[in-house]
Amino acid sequence: MKRILVTSALPYINGVKHLGNLIGSQLPSDVYARFMRSLGFDVLFICATDEHGTPAELAAKNKGIPVEDFCQEMWLMQKKIADDFNISFDHFGRSSSKQNYELTQHFALKLWENNFIEEVEESQVYSLDDKRFLPDRYITGKCPACGYEKARGDQCENCTKQLDPTDLIDPESTISGSKLLEIRQTRHLFLKQSLLKNKLEKWINTKEKWPTLTKSIAKKWLNTKEGLKDRSITRDLSWGVPVKKYGAFWPGFEEKVFYVWFDAPIAYIAATREWSDSKHDPDSWKTWWLNGEGAENVFYVQFMAKDNIPFHTISFPATIFGAEENWKLVDFIKGFNWLLYEGGKFSTSENRGIFMDKALDIYPADYWRWWLLSNAPESSDTDFTWASFQSTVNKDLADVLGNFISRVSSFSVSKFGQKIPSKGKYGQLEIETIEKIDLHYKCLKDLMESIEIRKSCSELRTIWVIGNEYLQRAAPWSVFKETPEKSQMIIRFALNLIYFYSLISEPFIPESCEKIQKHFQFNKMKTLPQNLDSFVDALNDTHEISKPSIFFQKISDEEVFDYQMEFSGN
To answer: Which has the closest alpha carbon to 48: 99, 20, 7?
Structure first.
């Protein structure tokens, strides 16, 4: 398939995200989107802010501004941070867009017409001190399944068990901390997921190539003792998508909105529609999302942390199935485990851990990108430590890639001036090096197509190492004394390797690769070379090398100590 749709889980609007949020969705989806573009695929990379729900309301109230203004402000901030990390979204939209309002109401109507929605009177927690019904995410207590003390009213993030607020042991309001809670009756719309279990199960069983993490969580939700539960899709809130059908308020639901986890996944489609509208091509979004309009030829990949997996493997597909229209279903879901910080959790309130804005104040985006990608929490949780960060940046970027570039360019300028050496035919050592790199290059491409992030980084680092090994064996500084022309050939070959490295490394460390290409006046290429053998003579003596520079400054022990203290928490 030549067309790939990539979506990153929607970051919530309530503030700056930490590094765990970055590696949990935005960063791996970016490296995948970039790499697939470089292989010649037509890629559309979509994300948006998740703006509805109580947290946005409360944050706006604390700032003393309307919630719409707060969300606009936070959207601008999150977009800027994503841009600064060089996340290459084709469109970064908003779940509060008119497109999402329309589509969310459309899906609810279709589900209602197809008898997959019913009105249910249910018992819900009401806070006497807060004078309001509490959304399930604003009630915390002990999980009845695993005993985790801070389980939310919809799901325990420790064991991922799906919960109702009334399941919690010793619950309290997360708004005020009040335990003066009582159960009151209210009416809500429920998506009858139970009627769709067989269809969901059959569909999930076809996804043999899904990661173990993704499939195991999906099956866990499907095969609970209670069976797949019907889920409420409305909430007693004022901020969100109004509950309407046929253009009018749903009778009895005038003071309610659609539940954020019902409208948020639909925002993937809505954000694509925003992108389409911004291009003044209002129907092009359909070619990505509607089978029969072109979406049947699209490979759709979602990226997210493991707490989002149930909603994307069960709830959103249930919405798609229940609508009984020709919507595109996801083909591959890449889930990630948690990123820990020095053995514990990131915490905004305790000032513990690195958040995305602070990270960029300290080191270049590519330092963070490389460490996070090469340590991506794919098979298990990953622990960020300053010692590991320092070691990875210094060894991989400075000592391997940076050192190779510096040694080659310094020698070339000092011995041959600013022109690329043009003399000498490649010998056996160069042929062997080409063959060795090509094997790993093929593996890198295969791994990236399989979305194996850590293994891809390992292959890329191996390709960098081969360049250093070649330079040591070829020893142009020794050869120069006796055979200057052979030394020129070695350097020309090594400079072509640098060019090659700047292209294949761009999805991982894009800012650094752009600097390398500018420094050496390398031409940019839209697609990656098929192999190294056809590329090693891409440079000629019309290219010039400017004065060598250090591309990757090392991180000192003193810096590590200072930052460990600064971000260790209150």
So the answer is: 7
How many angstroms separate the Cα of 556 from the Cα of each of 177, 403, 551?
44, 17, 16
- Eight-state DSSP code of residue 135: P
Q: Over 70: is that where the pLDDT of 351 sits?
A: yes
CB under 8 Å to 239, separation ≥6 — which residues? 52, 53, 54, 56, 57, 67, 257
- Rg of the chain on CA atoms, in Å: 27
Which single residue is written with the structure tokens 């098979």? 379
pTM for this prediction: 0.92
What is the average per-residue pLDDT within 479-485?
92
Question: 41 in helix, strand or coil?
Answer: coil
Q: What's the CA gap between 189 and 245, in Å, rounded?
A: 12
Residue 67, Cβ neighbours under 10 Å: how many?
Answer: 21
pLDDT at 570 over 80: no
DSSP lists the bridge partners of residue 384 as 341
* pLDDT tens track for 285-297: 999 999 999 999 9
Q: Are strands 3-8 and 298-305 parallel, antiparallel or unpaired?
A: parallel
Q: Is the confidence at residue 457, as pLDDT, over 90?
A: yes
Residue 97's nearest CA partner among 254, 281, 267, 248 is 267
Distance CA 508, CA 501 (A): 11
Q: Which helix (H) or strand (E) holds 270?
A: helix 260-278
Q: Which pLDDT band, with edges at 50, 70 and 90, does 82 fall under?
A: very high
User: Which residues are CB-neighbours of 520 under 8 A, at least 6 positions away?
Assistant: 409, 495, 498, 499, 502, 543, 545, 546
SS3 call for 445: helix
